[in-house]
Amino acid sequence: MLASNHMIGFKPKRPITNVRFSGPSEVPTRLLKTPETTQIPTSNGPEAPTVSLLWKCSQLRELKSAHATMIKNNAHQDPYLINQFIGACSAFRRMHYALLVFHCMEDPNVYVYNAMIRGFVHCSSPIQALRCYVGMSRSRVSPTSFTFSTLVKACTQALSTEFGESIHGRIWKSGFQSQVFVQTSLIDFYSNCSRIVESRKVFDGMTERDVVSWTTMVSGYARVGDLDAAGRLFEDMPERSTVSWNTMIAGFARSGDVESAARLFDQMPSKDLVSWTTMISSYSQGKRFREALEVFQAMRVAGVSPDEVTMATVISACAHLGALDLGKEMHFYALQNGFDLDVYIGSALVDMYAKCGNIERSLVVFFNLREKNLFCWNSMIEGLAIHGHAGDALGMFDRMERQKVKPNGVTFVSVLSACTHAGLVEEGRRRFSSMTHDYLISPEIKHYGCMVDLLGRAGLLKEAYDLIMTMSIEPNAVVWGALLGGCKLHGNLEIGKIAVEELMILEPENSGYYVLLVNMYAEANRWSEVAKIRAAMRGRGVQKKSPGSSWIEVGGKVHEFVVADRSHPLCDKIFMLLVELDGQLKMAGI
Fold first, then answer.
1. Which of 91, 494, 547, 582 has the CB geometry, 3.0–4.6 Å to 24, for a possible disulfide?
2. Which residues are paired to 549 by β-bridges?
3. What are the residues whose beta carbons fall under 8 Å from the beta carbon of 304, sequence distance 6 or more?
């Protein structure tokens, strides 16, 4: 029973709620009209001046002034005006203020209750929305269909299957089960709770469906990863909206099927900002950063302006490609178009400048950020570490601790990496111990990899091997590869052979480890061992790895090259330049 006192814990004399309001929208300067808003007064009506004041509120003090006017005019019991006032409070996310005014009402009607419920949902306070409904039931105020659609949203936010099923039962008892928007909210609720079978039952039981219902069901299948079912339903849709196309593209992107996402994107009859941003994010998540930038350029050609999410995603793609010129262009674009350098765009810029080699500009952006989240700090510490500024990286970590920002596992990967590149063995040991004992962060494979690399580079190969043997998780190829690298550096064939044997099990087709051991034996003039390893490679069909690729940015465009690649239009110019440079070096006696 939803109205159970012990379950809700509701004590005030009047219930608390918040609504998605029949008042101001998310932009506080205008009101959102809902289908259940009471009759709008004419310009000559008694409520018109007060409503006008509420509509014009852009600051909290203006809202308080409008409330004072309501009290002065003895309008603080008017349900319509209180409905509008609650909506304004919701826009300012000041539902505690709305609650005070609500408690002063002698006889709130269903529209006022609905406004409170919607306001709490709008402000992500689902439990308070449900409490408000309990108070509404106790006051014997009959709900409307809009009451239930908003309550279902509250249950979705709270992911409360028990409450949701209870509300579903009330919907049937109240006779609102045929309302399209109520059923659509139930479809969304069940799919968010991973109850896709119940979601489909609601959908199949609908006597009437609109494009929102279809899209919600498609989204439900995509959310639980059943893209086959989502695709079939998408094909059956009598009408497809841009939202439904975006839903399918996002579903394929989440599953890692970038090709299918791109195919749908190309087929879209019209694309909005969400479509473009989703496709850019899809390529970025698939580490296809060059394609992400190409889609962004096409988006600009199409005349679609990016938002903060798009900008942060594109700047991050520039970081991974090392496209500094394009990254600078994005920075300038953000400043020129009034984007706030918040923690998302700001941290992306910090990361981009650091990864593109301009650590000084990265520091300037970092220190100019008004607000810094953990990702900002992590980006800065990592940037300093990869540029060899180990002392500055550790100092930045200490500064972060002094500002009471709690590090996470990613932070310590950068800290340990800084210690590794600077050869700070004792400092690395201390930081690794601090991570586990002071911050209770369980070491992950990357942390062990950093420590093995640190010890291996320092020649402490026995200690590195012992650490691997005592790891709380199974060592992977990266950990054994770090140990093998240390053995190569210090010529330790005994432990190196152990590392290669483990690597042969983990990555039998990777020729790099075999080649490294061959080189170690060759340097020790143990040619018989070299012959055995090469024979073993042939016997196991191990092939040399395909060549790696490199990127270079020229004129704001990113070009990709592989070893001995002469197919690119710029290759001839590059080879001619290399020959010229080689000649100049020889003439200089270098």
1. 91
2. 562
3. 271, 272, 273, 276
Instruction: Identify whether 115 is part of a domain.
Output: no
Number of H helices, E strands in the chain: 32, 2
Strand, helix or coil at 550? strand
- Tell me if 296 is assigned to some domain: no
Same domain membership, residue 578 and residue 513: no
Q: What is the number of domains present in the chain?
A: 2
Distances from the Cα of 353 to the Cα of 350, 364, 365, angstroms: 6, 10, 9
Surface-to-core class of residue 193, CB atoms within 10 Å of its CB (0-12 exposed, 13-18 middle, 19+ buried):
middle
pLDDT tens column, 312-348:
999 999 999 888 998 999 999 999 988 888 888 999 9
What is the predicted pLDDT for the residue at 85? 87
CATH of the domain at 472: 1.25.40
Question: Are 496 and 556 part of one and the same domain?
Answer: no
Residue where a domain stops, chosen among 539, 558, 578: 539
Nearest in space to 351 (alpha carbons), one of 392, 321, 307: 321
CA distances from 116 to 157, 427, 572 (A): 16, 56, 70
Closest alpha carbon to 193 in 233, 219, 228, 224? 224
d(CA 73, CA 96): 23
In terms of domains, do 477 and 500 share one?
yes
Cβ atoms 418, 393 nearer than 8 A: yes
Cα(275)–Cα(278) distance, integer angstroms: 5
What would the mean pLDDT of 121-125 be, rounded to a whole number? 92
Instruction: Identify the helix (H) or strand (E) that includes residue 554.
Output: strand 549-554
Residue type, 571: C
pLDDT digits (tens, 9 = 90+) for 253-285: 888 899 999 999 999 999 999 999 999 999 998
DSSP secondary structure, 406-449, as one string = PP-HHHHHHHHHHHHHHT-HHHHHHHHHHHHHTS-PPP-HHHHH
Residues 505 and 553 in one domain: no
Whether 518 and 556 map to the same domain: the answer is no
Separation CA 573–CA 571 (nearest Å) = 5
Rounded Cα distance, 152 and 68, in Å: 34
pTM over 0.85: no
**Residues with Cβ within 8 Å of residue 23, at least 6 apart in sequence:** 31, 32, 54, 83, 84, 85, 86, 87, 88, 89, 90, 91, 115
Q: Give the range of the structural domain holding residue 577, as residue numbers without chain letter.
A: 549-587
